[in-house]
Write a structure and sequence with these properties.
about 60 residues, mainly alpha, about 0% strand
Length: about 60
């Protein structure tokens, strides 16, 4: 049981870093969606159609 006690701080740090990375990734995705909204609406495309074409063009 003493082996797992030494790993507890590392597990907590890992979970905190994973949570921060998830929040940052979600923020970046939201930023891209908001920036591309005007273009997508001007083309009268759905979200799926617009981003599918955007992903396939790269």
């Amino acid at each position: 049981m003493d082996l797992y006690t030494g790993l507890t701080p590392f597990a907590v740090v890992f979970v905190v870093l994973a949570a921060v990375a998830s929040v940052v990734a979600l923020g970046l995705v939201a930023d891209v969606v908001v920036r591309n909204r005007r273009t997508r609406l001007a083309r009268h495309e759905s979200i799926g159609t617009y981003y599918r074409g955007l992903a396939l063009s790269h």
